Amino acid sequence: MTENSLERTGASLLIKALQQNGINNIYGLVGIPVTDFARLAELRGMKYYGFRREDSAIDAAAAAGYLTQKPGVGLTVSAPGFLNGLTALAQATKNCFPLIMISGSSERHIIDLSQGDYEGLDQYNVAKPFCKKAYRVDRAEDIGLAVARAIRTAVSGRPGGVYLDLPADTISQEAPTADTGIYKLVDPAPKQEPSDEAVSRAVDIIKNAQKPLIILGKGAAYARTEDQVQKLVNETGIPFLPMSMAKGVVPDDNKYSAASARSLSLKNADVVILIGARLNWMLSYGDAPQFNPDAKFIQLDIDATQFDSSQKISAPLQGDLQSILAKLIPAIIKSGYHTSEEWLDQIAQDTAKNDAKFAERIAAGKTNPKFGYYGAIEPIAEYFKEHPDTYIVSEGANTLDIGRNMVGMQLPRHRLDTGTWGVMGVGMGYAIATAIETGKHVVALDGDSALGFDGMEMETICRYKLPITVVVINNGGIYNGVGQVVSNQLGPTTLDPTGRYDLIAKAFGGDNYFVSNYQEMKDTFAKAVESGRPNLINVQIDPSMGKESGHIGNLNPALNLKPLEEAERSNHND
Questions:
Q1: Which InterPro entries match (predicted)?
Q2: Residue 148 backbone dihedrals phi, psi, to 5 degrees
């Protein structure tokens, strides 16, 4: 193949189309039929980051999309590799992260006749239920158009995942010219303003609110609304409650934060303003008793199908969040509205009471002979107070829940976690992309169970020498390491409580630390992060620490096992 013919291949056109649209990073795992495509991408100036599992690579691409507002690009091989990436594709779509997952695939004529191709699978049709849109490119000359459609689909409206099916023949096929169909998109995510009538409707409801509450979702963080939302909060005094990935849109230490008075705020608010948040399972669908049954909801969202999904929305405001807020905030300020001092005092008193209780837990955690989550995470929280421009990625059950409450965020988009779907195994992929896309220090805070999904990506972290500190809270179990009842079997939630996860880092040239009390963690953590080197801290806590399913134990059906367990224990003693 001559250099001129190489320029006309589907592979070259795909690279040109991505670069033309400002996409220069690829997260993936190579093999048949995409290995030379990745090599060519590097030769043409793109950055390729190779992973050990496809799901981690696609998770990384999704996180890149969230952080940059441009679709992250993930690459997989065919069939099994494609299937490994499918969970991450679905996760990105549920989380509203813009992503393009590109997979090599078998030739369509072989698949359609079921002739038994190597790793043959009808990937195009399999992917459709798990993403916003799937596209297959059968002709090299259509690559530019396919990339344009994929980008626009991923970032416009409610962002999400797109699947791009790339048959092996298309990769090497030659188009008529070296620039066939390649172009840069014009305004891929057009602004959308709400009507004046919709804004007036919302303002009228807010003007009559006695106990208003703003709920911030990660959509508010993705849309870069922090300046607008901070103005809204500070000038009206409307208290706000951030969802986990919206922490930092308004600094957590802002005086109008209702985070420590969550239950009281939700139960008593008479007007709830949803900004980039959805009334899904994470907000109990807006139902009583968690919410005031008489509350009126105002929802700001790009997607009208989200309105009335579980509650009546009295004032729907459709559009991109910046455009909505650009019209809504001046109208609220012009109305002269300010939240009543009585409501603010209620929240402040509840906040003070709950903060005092929380402070007691943290203080006890520093000295508790049974070393647990509070003592392990407090040094991280202390570090983030002093170094707010550090990123945190977190997953697990108790590790995620307690860490979210303890580690304050002062800047937007500095916290990533399992999000809407609650999928474990995203931590390493998200952390890697965050380090690459931001160039900042990243802390990956994982439970020992969560790390099991993607722990081999520690090799990826070390190979690229990324400034990532992985903290594994090791209590030897899923939820906790206590639970063996049947004498000749380990309990279903049992893992190795003495496992030395830190040695994974050592195996690949990273730094490793082992700590088992608060002072050791305090002495170690800042040093590990500021080294700028890949490292892993294994935090050994007591196996009894941790409750079933963390904060969402209600979702794990409980069976009455007590009689059987007592009988089993009785048999042990006979």
A1: DHS-like_NAD/FAD-binding_dom, HACL1-like, Oxalyl-CoA_decarboxylase, THDP-binding, Thiamin_PyroP_enz_cen_dom, Thiamin_PyroP_enz_TPP-bd_dom, TPP_enzyme_TPP-bd
A2: -60, -45
